[in-house]
Amino acid sequence: MIFTKKISVFALLVILIVISQSFTSFNHNDDEKPTNLKILQKDISEDELHHVMREYSRALGVKCGFCHERKEGQKHADFASDAKHEKLIAREMMLMVNDINNKYLATAGKGRFEKISCVTCHMGRKVPIISVDSLPKNPNQRDPKKIPLPVNDSIKAPQKH
Ligand code: HEC
Ligand code: HEC
Fold first, then answer.
1. Neighbours of 79 (CB within 10 A)
2. How many angstroms separate the Cα of 136 from the Cα of each of 113, 141, 154?
3. Per-domain residue ranges of the chain
């Protein structure tokens, strides 16, 4: 009796570990060190990097593949690749957010404001609400996710020269 109980507890543990790993593994080999960081600290820990990336994804309401290219037939995204223009825009956004925080918010209101991040503008959308005309008249309907996107949802890839 005790023996089978032990086994089933063990089996349950194994199942839990497998499930939790399938959620935390980011379809990417955790032993790989980042090779193409231009803005984040190069010695950022694996945990911190994933935390940042998860925040970007949630702030924009997207999956990793929105910014990271995955080649046909490959299981994992090539996270170091800069092939997607969304990733390049994200880098520019990172610089912009740093500037807003360090140049403006650091001193605005005598420095008593919290720092902003991607979600401050994006609120779970790929494209923030740019114009007040996009806001529904009824404030109760202002759930950002339900406000229709502009017709041109996504920025076009820059022209190749
Ligand atoms: C909104 C765009 C965006 C999303 C979504 C995003 N990333 Fe990133 N990711 C970036 C940018 C930009 C960089 C490069 C940062 C830099 O240059 O400092 C990066 C870098 C990385 C790197 C380091 C690659 C290397 O070798 O240099 C990894 C790993 C990574 N992302 C994983 C993820 C994972 C996993 C997800 C999903 C949970 C994700 N990213 C979602 C924009 C994004
Ligand atoms: C101050 C407001 C603001 C903040 C903060 C902000 N963004 Fe943006 N973001 C914008 C605007 C405005 C656009 C362009 C929307 C348009 O006109 O299509 C945009 C567009 C983007 C796009 C292109 C979307 C597409 O569909 O091509 C990406 C990717 C992006 N932002 C990532 C980020 C990330 C990552 C962060 C945090 C590091 C961030 N943004 C923070 C305002 C902001």
1. 21
2. 28, 6, 21
3. 44-132
Q: Helices (H) and strands (E) in the chain — how many of each?
A: 4, 0
Q: What is the pLDDT of residue 57?
A: 98
Residue 50's pLDDT is 97
**Tokens 């229709």 appear where?**
148
Check pocket membership of 119 for ligand 1, CB cut-off 6 A: no
Is the beta carbon of 76 within 6 A of some atom in ligand 1?
no
CA of 16: how far to CAs of 3, 13, 19, 95, 127, in Å?
A: 20, 5, 5, 39, 37
pTM of the model: 0.82
Of all protein residues, whose CA lies closest to atom 24 belonging to ligand 1? 80
Q: Which fold has domain 44-132?
A: Photosynthetic Reaction Center, subunit C; domain 2 (1.10.468)
Confirm or reject: Cβ of 53 under 6 Å from ligand 1: yes
User: What are phi and psi for residue 95, nearest 5 degrees?
Assistant: -65, -40
Query: Do the beta carbons of residue 28 and residue 69 sit within 8 Å?
Result: no
The alpha carbon of 118 and the centre of ligand 2 are apart by a number of angstroms equal to 7
Residue 123 structure tokens: 């609120």
